[in-house]
Design brief:
Length: about 300
Amino acid sequence: MSNPVVVLAGGTGGAKLARGMLDVVGAESLTVIANTGDDIEIYGAYVSPDPDLVTFWLGDRIDDRGWGLAGDTFHVMEGLRAIGIDVWFNLGDQDLAIGIERARRLQTGERLTDAHRAIATALNTPGTVLPMADAPVRTRVMARDEWWPFQEYMIRAAGATDAGDPVQDVDFHGARAARPTAEVLHAIATAQAILIGPSNPVVSIGPILAIPTLQDALQNAPAPVVAVSPLVGGEVVKGPTAAFMGFTGLPLSSAGIAAYYDGVIDGLVADERTDRVPVLETDVLMATPEARRTVAEQALRFALTLS
């Protein structure tokens, strides 16, 4: 294929769709634009969880726990705990090495895009994974009347959701000043189809859409834009999507997902219909490699019918 298929991803759902799409279109035709709102600087490393997650999935190196590299060890974290460090953010040794190398490259003046490209190349990762922007964008969540950096909210304040405390607000700090890279804009402008992965709409895809120039590019893209619903049988497969959709005031349904992406998408792939947009009604659970390929193939075929 001469024109790429672009997948917007943040979190496991988007990474799974990207891995399925790799089987469908091949490495040369796949570009993934990944959320960087979850990025964090810690332990002397620059950790970019979503671009790395997609990279590990594309390279078939994701661990069974759903994050990090398969077979990774945690000796550094154990060593930090042994000297009294509060290790609240757990990183495997190889994962930490990647973050340290990314931090080194950024300190020499490299763009985040180039730093991640070098890491993906070193890992022999197929496809192209692009951070959504080089400038920092950081997701913050208000819960219990307090603002939390995203990773601290998810890990240290995990009890907020568990206890039923609502998400009070979400902010994408730096998004309005950020700009998509030339690589991101080129991928969107030349794509034959753009798929939004079944990631958390608010905190995984929301930061991407919060960059005004990037959202404009998607809205004016010559290619159709189709979202894959993160809901299976009306339920969330994994993660705090329900809590964040609750914050938006939109229903946890196909109609709610379509409404969140209003003005951006031309269609929706889901197992439940809505009248808001054209819908391909199909099974969207991607628990196996075969299912990931099937959903990716169906989503692509559906998108091309909308072009």
